[in-house]
Design a protein that fits this description.
With 132 residues, this protein is mainly alpha-helical. The protein folds into two domains: 9-71, Winged helix-like DNA-binding domain superfamily/Winged helix DNA-binding domain (Arc Repressor Mutant, subunit A); 91-131, no CATH class. Helices cover 61% and strands 9% of the residues. It has helices spanning 9-20, 27-34, 42-54, 75-90, 95-104, 110-131; strands at 58-63, 66-71. The chain has a two-stranded antiparallel sheet. A hairpin with a 2-residue loop joins strand 1 (58-63) and strand 2. Helix 2 crosses helix 3. The chain is elongated, with a radius of gyration of 19 Å. It starts with 8 loop residues before the first helix and ends with a helix.
Length: 132
């Protein structure tokens, strides 16, 4: 399995935008969607998209004078990789320690806690059914 490289802050910002777009995109489309008032330079977006190609998050295809970028790594795959990296480096490989930290942190709303409880209950039901 190829290890997916980590995303920097700007790379993550651009990928979040691209993951929401249903098709191939150009630098101009990404730049105008994310930075409509020119908060970042066009060339910064272009350079970062090319870095994402090098990191194998995107594919690039040149048609005429325009480069088109398409997603190569799905959001779920990137999230899984980032989570594994975090758990490995901070929680000594324990996903349980991460869950405990999240619950005890006080950062989760009552609604989020209820959603987590429902997910746990569903997972327990699924495991019981698999045992039968």
């Amino acid at each position: 399995m190829n290890k997916i490289k980590k995303l920097s802050v700007i790379e993550s910002e651009l990928m979040d935008c691209i993951w929401k777009m249903p098709r191939r995109v150009t630098v101009r489309e990404v730049h105008s969607k994310l930075y409509p008032r020119g908060e970042k330079a066009y060339t910064t977006v272009q350079t970062t998209l090319n870095i994402l190609v090098d990191k194998k998050f995107l594919r690039k295809q040149k048609i005429g004078m325009v480069n088109f970028y398409t997603v190569k790594v799905r959001r779920e795959e990137a999230m899984k990789n980032e989570t594994k990296s975090l758990v490995s480096s901070i929680f000594h490989g324990s996903f349980g320690a991460l869950a405990t930290h999240l619950i005890q942190s006080g950062e989760l709303s009552s609604k989020e806690l209820d959603e987590i409880k429902a997910l746990i209950e569903q997972q327990e039901k699924n495991e019981e059914q698999q045992k039968k």
